[in-house]
Write a structure and sequence with these properties.
Elements: H1 2-20, H2 25-46, H3 71-102
Helix pairs in contact: 1-2, 2-3
Length: about 110
C-alpha cells in the first residue's frame, strides 16, 4: 500500500512541476494546485494514519501515544487546503485581469489585437 501512495504522490508532484514550467498561466495555476495536493497528501500520510482512535485524551496519569491519533497533521492539511483555495481564487482573479489587459494569457505576452 505504501508503494501505491508513494507513486501517487510522485505522479502528482511530477505533473505539477511539468505544468508549472508550461508557458500558459492556466497551466501554471493547475500545476500549483497539483503540487499543493501532493504536499498535502505527503503531510497527511506522514502523520501515521489511525483508524477508530480518538485524537485527544482527557484522562489523568501516564498516556500511551500509541492509543491516540495525532491531530497535528490533520490540522495542517486542513489549514493548507483553506489557504490553497484562497490563493487559487487570487491567482484566477489576477489571470482574468491580466488576460483582460493584455488580450492573452501567455507568459511572454504580446501586444493585444484590436
Amino acid at each position: 500500500m505504501e508503494i501505491v501512495i508513494a507513486i501517487a504522490i510522485g505522479v502528482l508532484f511530477g505533473s505539477g512541476v511539468w505544468l508549472v514550467l508550461r508557458p500558459r498561466t492556466f497551466q501554471v495555476i493547475t500545476g500549483l494546485l497539483l503540487l499543493s495536493y501532493a504536499v498535502n497528501l505527503f503531510i497527511f500520510i506522514m502523520g501515521r494514519l489511525s483508524i477508530n482512535l480518538p485524537p485527544l485524551t482527557l484522562e489523568k496519569g501516564p498516556i500511551d501515544p500509541a492509543l491516540y491519533a495525532d491531530p497535528v497533521p490533520q490540522a495542517l492539511v486542513l489549514t493548507a487546503i483553506v489557504i490553497g483555495f484562497a490563493t487559487t481564487a487570487l491567482y484566477l482573479v489576477v489571470l482574468l485581469a491580466s488576460r483582460g489587459m493584455t488580450g492573452t494569457d501567455h507568459v511572454e505576452g504580446r501586444e493585444p489585437e484590436l
